[in-house]
Amino acid sequence: MIKKLFTAITGLLLVAGVSYGQKLHYGLKADLQFTSLNGRGMQGSFNPGYDAGIFLEYNITSKWGIQPEVLFSQFNNKKDDDFLTYYVNSGNSSAKSSIKLSYVSIPVLLAYKVNDLFTLNVGPQFSVLVYDNEDLLLKDKAAFKNTDYGVAAGLTLHVSQVRFYGRYTLGLGNINNIDDRYKWHSQQIQVGLGVAIK
Asked: Which residues does the UniProt record annotate as the domain Outer membrane protein beta-barrel (predicted)?
């Protein structure tokens, strides 16, 4: 699914870019992000991480556009002290408290140009878990699902070729892979910058 989505977006923008080169921009971005995992057994506090990747900007009109991105995101979070209260049968009593999750995320954002400086962004985000460093469960079972989805909203400041971002992403999917009793949801606050190459 993620491969088809990325191929479709890339193909669409390449076709559009051939015809309307002045409307298409792309570049690199990097963010400091604070992530939180909320739910029973999770600490729920925001912890620093990062994400980095590429962005595309396609201007449909003078005011409206779309901005797909492909990002590598690092989550650093912690389980709560009461984790084994909820997962007494499957939880690993000697598990470390730190949780590290790495995702490839694809936000596809609608962009509204307020003026020459500011753009509002909102849209869905789909993420695939590509690496985890956690030992929450016995028998090396995975505590987190392989995919997540949510909605992102933020503000971009344009200064020549540089973009300064502020964004909040709310995870809507339940990423708890243990059972269906308790739901875990992610949150992200991102502050960063991008540089348009074209």
From this structure: 24-175
**Domains of the chain, CATH where assigned:** 2-196 (2.40.160.20)
Q: For residues 95 and 79, is the Cβ–Cβ distance under 8 A? A: yes
**CB-neighbour burial class of residue 48 (10 A; exposed 0-12, middle 13-18, buried 19+):** exposed
- Residue 52 to residue 55: CA distance in whole angstroms: 10
Q: Count CA within 13 A, CB hemisphere, residue 168.
A: 2
pLDDT of residue 82: 92
* pLDDT < 50 stretches in the chain: 5, 12-13, 15-21
- The angle at the Cα of 104, spanning 34 to 25, to the nearest 5 degrees, equals 90
The Cα 179–Cα 188 span in angstroms is 24
